[in-house]
């Protein structure tokens, strides 16, 4: 098994005022020219789920209401996985490249979660015109915007 070194570039900061990505000072210059992108792909670490036991889980019992009874972990968005890496597309509300903050509308990360990388969302590389999903989740929203008003609580078995 090969080992890789991955370094955090910042942290998620959530409060009553909203959610920001706080970039560590050495990485602030990397924000140049990010202005103008409406969305970013945030690659972050599920730090609260990083244990030897969690990394060994490869299958899970029916995590979603209509899903198969047993699912491989790669067919879920669970934080329990061999490498607890997460990817979230987030709407950019404001970038302050002096203080190194990116205010975002939403992210499914907890306060303090380490951020590994940020990439601009570009439709030419990130948008799929007609994606296909299994029947059990075909009723889920077709966009990030629709997801904001979808009752996700009715979908999960946890």
Task: Provide the descriptors you would attach to this structure in a database record.
single chain, 158 residues, mainly beta, Elongation Factor Tu (Ef-tu), domain 3, two-stranded antiparallel ribbon, 8% helix
Summarize the structure.
By secondary structure, the chain is mainly β. It has three helices and eight strands.
Kindly describe this structure.
This protein has helices at residues 52-55, 123-126, 144-147, and strands at 10-15, 18-23, 39-45, 59-61, 70-72, 85-96, 101-104, 114-120. It is mostly beta strands. It has one domain (10-123): YaeB-like (Elongation Factor Tu (Ef-tu), domain 3, Beta Barrel), CATH 2.40.30. A six-stranded antiparallel beta barrel has the order 1-2-7-6-3-8. The two termini are 32 Å apart. Pfam families: TrmO_N. Keywords: S-adenosyl-L-methionine.
Question: Which SSEs are present, and which pair or pack?
Answer:
Blueprint: E1 10-15, E2 18-23, E3 39-45, H1 52-55, E4 59-61, E5 70-72, E6 85-96, E7 101-104, E8 114-120, H2 123-126, H3 144-147
Antiparallel strand pairs: 1-2, 1-8, 2-7, 3-6, 3-8, 4-5, 6-7
Protein name: TsaA-like domain-containing protein
Organism: Anaerostipes rhamnosivorans
Domain TsaA-like: 6-130
Number of domains: 1
* Class inferred from helices and paired strands: mainly beta
Q: Mind telling me the CATH class?
A: Mainly Beta
Alpha plus pi helix count: 3
Tell me the fraction of residues in β-strands, as a range.
25-35%
* Strand order in space, largest sheet: 1-2-7-6-3-8
Helical content (DSSP H or I, runs of 4+): under 10%
The pLDDT mean sits at: 95
Radius of gyration: 17 Å
Second CATH tier, the architecture: Beta Barrel
CATH homologous superfamily grouping: YaeB-like
User: Can you count the beta strands?
Assistant: 8
**So what's the overall shape?**
globular
How does the major sheet shape up? 6 strands, antiparallel, barrel
